[in-house]
Amino acid sequence: MTELHYLTLTDAAEALRRRETSSAELTRAAFRRIHALDGEINAFLKLTEEAAMEQAGRADELLARGEGGPLTGIPAAIKDVIVTQGVRTTAGSKILDTFIPPYDANVITLLKEAGLVMTGKTNMDEFAMGSSGENSAYGPTHNPWAHGRVPGGSSSGSAAAVAAGMSYYALGSDTGGSIRQPAALTGVVGMKPTYGRVSRYGLIAFGSSLDQIGPFSRSVLDAALVFQAISGYDARDSTSAPMEVPDIRKALGRDLKGLRIGVPQEYFVEGMDPAVREAVTNAINQMRSLGAEIDWEVSLPSSSHALAVYYIIAPSEASANLARYDGVKYGYAYQDGASMWENMEKTRQYGFGEEVKRRIMIGTYALSAGYYDAYYLKAQKVRTVIRREFDEAFEKYDVLVAPVSPTTAFKIGEKMDDPLQMYLSDVCTIPVNIAGLPGISVPCGFATSDDGARLPVALQILAKPFDEATMFRVAYAYEQSTDWHRQHPAL
Amino acid sequence: MSLTPEQVRHIARLARLGIEDAQVERFAGQLSEILDYFERLRQVDTKDVPPTAHTLPMHNVFRGDEPVPSLEPDQTLANAPQRQGDLFRVRAVLDE
Asked: How far is CA A282 from its chain centroid?
């Protein structure tokens, strides 16, 4: 019997419908769990207990009338890069320490319509720049599987909250792997939708051509339900795709007969942890036994350039997006300088952390006169080459399967002095954002570290743009043939 | 590719980013290493390849020119570090 706090969203919703529990009870239980564990884990930057109990009360009224949907009354945590009306939103930065958004992000509006109970806002790398959660201005988040290890990033708090049973689901954002990589390192499901599928209205911008919001959950079906709830056209985002969202549940089944799966060699990178390679290989063999046809010899040679492309394009877009933090309109403001320019420079000097400054500098340089063609324009052209390779691969394969992270969760502090090594943590996830594809991280095993920690391993499933249905189909059939997703940290 | 401390200060100034002396040296080393990593893109033949700004086949997206409600001045100014009436207060932009 699964403890209440480790139920899947789907099972919790079923218990609500059968009146075995109430939203108020689930919400109180979630806060008991948060109060007991989060002093050690540091997944939350802000708790909204009072408002959550009110939302739970309203959800219980709906449920009592037999109304509501699959998310009604289910406690959820929201990454602090998604603006929430009246609830402080920091993006993990000191520069937004006092920022109280005057409006809700589109995903929050949609989730409120679906019966959201928001427990709080989750910790993250500052402005979503990082792969470990350590770049938060509010202290690192610890991995629920091993205190002292990172949960991955940038959506560190959302991943940890779901893994530790503090939340039934959570929202994150993924610019270069910031949902899938922490999902992998904490043993939960994390999904990045196709670029354009989920509105970015109210998502604090990092790399606007790459950013997407997506779910964390403890099962593939749960992720599909949240994906369904937050997707769809929104006129307030000019890159929102005017396309119907298919009913994912109809696509799910337990076998993979007739499915063509490609395994791109370049994603099994040099230096990959052998235990990760083994777990992912076993998982792909499992997919074969479910009826899929596997081609182990797929090559996407340009994917090896995706990391360089990303670290030009994302910082370039960030340097423009972060120009808005000038100490005039909101947030931290240095006011004691001799001039407007001095105030602005000091506001940004004291308000931004080291990694954010580094990326603003890279982006500013890549866009500056004389360097634009060599860096930014070149990166945009290589981006086209990467996308074309994926398009060709998807003519032959329904999905591609690869590792998510070359290693399991590393120790806090291990990579902080070497930015390039930290960037390499995202080598398997970044090509997906460059090409705008949907991708999902699914638990596929465990590996034991040198110091005896049992750490989760995951694989990612990639599909062609807007074919999330096939991606979920493969993820679900694989998951249902394993019990990795039912294993939880002993907390 | 090796950035000099002067170049680091110049980039920081373009970005309106105050920077401490100790950071200049560190950033010079780290940014140079990252720029070196970018050199690998030269290997990719991109002759006649168009650039991708984003991955959707959508350009010049318009919405109807219909007025919709916007935030009230008090909501817009609620987070202002300095406010004067219904205005954001800033230091003089031009020299007096």
From this structure: 25
Report the amino acid identity of residue A291.
G
Preceding peptide of A154 cis, ω within 30°: yes
The two three-digit tokens of residue A164, written as one number? 């530790």
Enumerate residues 38 to 57 of chain B having a beta carbon within 8 A of any beta carbon in chain A: 38, 40-44, 46, 49-56
Please, which residues have CB within 8 angstroms of residue A187's CB and are 6 or more apart in sequence?
A: A145, A163, A443, A446, A456, A458, A484, A485, A487, A488, A489
Q: What is the pLDDT along chain A (491 residues), one digit of tens a residue?
A: 689 999 999 999 999 999 999 999 999 999 999 999 999 999 999 999 999 999 999 999 999 999 999 999 999 999 999 999 999 999 999 999 999 999 999 999 999 999 999 999 999 999 999 999 999 999 999 999 999 999 999 999 999 999 999 999 999 999 999 999 999 999 999 999 999 999 999 999 999 999 999 999 999 999 999 999 999 999 999 999 999 999 999 999 999 999 999 999 999 988 899 999 999 999 999 999 999 999 999 999 999 999 999 999 999 999 999 999 999 999 999 999 999 999 999 999 999 999 999 999 999 999 998 999 999 999 999 999 999 999 999 999 999 999 999 999 999 999 988 888 888 889 999 999 999 999 999 999 999 999 999 999 999 999 999 999 999 999 999 999 999 999 999 99
Q: Which residues in chain B are contacts of A337 at CB distance < 8 A?
A: 91
Report which of A478, A480, A482, A486 is spatially closest to residue A460, judged by C-alpha positions: A478
* Chain B residues close to A381, C-beta within 8 Å: 44, 46, 49-52
Q: Chain B interface, mutation test: which of A89, A336, A364, most B Cβ atoms within 10 Å?
A: A364
B81: DSSP letter: S
**DSSP string across A298-365:** E--GGGGGHHHHHHHHHHHHHHHHGGG-SSSSSS-----SSSHHHHHHHHHHHHS-HHHHHHHHHHHH
**ipTM for the assembly:** 0.95
Residue A260 contacts residue A141 (beta carbons within 8 Å): no
